[in-house]
Amino acid sequence: MPENSALHPTPPPTGEEQPRSIRLTDPRALRAYAHPLRLTLVGLLRSNGPFTATRAAALTGESVASCSYHLRILAKYGLVEEAPGGRGRQKPWRATAQYTEWPEYSEDPTVAEAADALSAAVAERYFERFTRAMENRRAVPKEWREAEQLGDSLLHLTPRELTDLGKRIEELLRPYEERESDRSLRPEGARPVSIMRIAYLDQDVPTDEKE
């Protein structure tokens, strides 16, 4: 299933156990989340929240009214919620989970269409950020440039093998997730690193499979 952090995992609220992920299956929620500003707001709340609509406007360059409106839409579908304290426009918002999941396949064409549109919106956002990182790469220290990774592999797999590979990669990454919410677990020199996982059936490569 697609799993998206809106590019930023979030520490759980103090004293509370936050769900790791929220799963969207309502096509209305899927379409709502695909909006670029809403993806941005969820990502910012997961990295810098809680914050108010006023702060959201400062971070995004959008108006306070626009941010307030989109935060309310996100709250409608359970992606954000009001945090304790504040009043009116000064009320803070927080993300409700670290990650967002949605169906990779559905027999319902409405759900399938909305899920595919969300996946496309997220992919576009991923590559916008990646392109920006490459454009600014000269400012990255030498040791980080040497450690960064860019490449691809063409593998011949069955659906079950690809699913298993994804689970194994997730198991490798999971121990590092705790460092986001518990700063004491971060070794000296640790910096935020975005890791994208993309695997798709490459229909441009010819095969000898019989139809």
From TrEMBL:
CDD domains: HTH_ARSR. SUPFAM superfamilies: Winged helix' DNA-binding domain. This is ArsR family transcriptional regulator. Residues 1-21 are annotated as: Disordered. It comes from the Bacteria.
